[in-house]
């Protein structure tokens, strides 16, 4: 026999129960199914909310905020809970799940085809996304998805090389920041017509010496500053930059010299 429905009183009483610290779990589950949206919203923020109730509320528009709060508090979602929440109609909920490091691979594959670019962005950024998924997302229509793939430490090298030729400079600059990029590709990107791309090469610790030497003469002072801040910048280049005509460049180069002398 089914259990008879709990008699939880009128709306005011149910609201008090929904926010109560000592409200029993079965009551919280019942309140998560309340016909009153205010009651459901109140119980959703109860710190003692059981996973069963969270799953019931998965399609509520505010649930992603609760999941974000839990993440900030250092709480991680179990694989079982991720699976149960994965069918949420709220894209931001699916996005949070796709960012989770313990998100199952089969769900990451599903999320890679999600209609929401927010979800695909999360998959592209997840370091546990499999190589074939990242290869597919490297062709995503949304630039920001390709940018996330370009910075993902798990992206295959041949995919990075393809993204280094992307028509959008923001994708190329994201590739230029990837520490796994080979010297030849960094050299090519160091000659990119877009200063943003050259700036990222200037800050890459694996940038070839020749690139840093050439970029230390770049017309944009921000690029020269980034060369000075690069831990791989040779001493002779720092010496030159410490005499730069712009004070900000000279100051950063001098600071880098002094920092190295203390190490």
Oligomeric assembly:
single chain
Order of helices and strands: HHHHHHHHHHHHHHHHHHH
Q: What is the overall shape?
A: elongated
CATH superfamily of the largest domain: Leucine-rich Repeat Variant
What is the overall number of helices?
Answer: 19
User: How much of the polypeptide forms β-strand, as a percent range?
Assistant: under 5%
Secondary structure tally: strands: 0
Stretches with pLDDT under 50, minimum 5 residues: none
Q: Main beta sheet, described? A: none
CATH architecture of the largest domain: Alpha Horseshoe
Distance between the ends: 74 Å
Radius of gyration: 26 Å
Helix content: 55-70%
State mean pLDDT (0 to 100 scale): 94
Class by SSE composition:
mainly alpha
What would the CATH topology of the largest domain be? Leucine-rich Repeat Variant
Question: Can you walk me through this structure?
Answer:
The chain has 263 residues and is mainly α. The protein has 2 domains: 46-62 and 79-155, no CATH class; 164-263, Leucine-rich Repeat Variant. Helix content is 60%, strand content 0%. The chain has helices at residues 11-19, 25-31, 37-44, 51-56, 63-72, 79-85, 91-99, 105-111, 117-125, 131-137, 143-151, 157-163, 169-176, 183-189, 195-203, 209-215, 221-229, 235-241, 247-262. The protein is elongated and about 80 Å long. The mean pLDDT is 94.
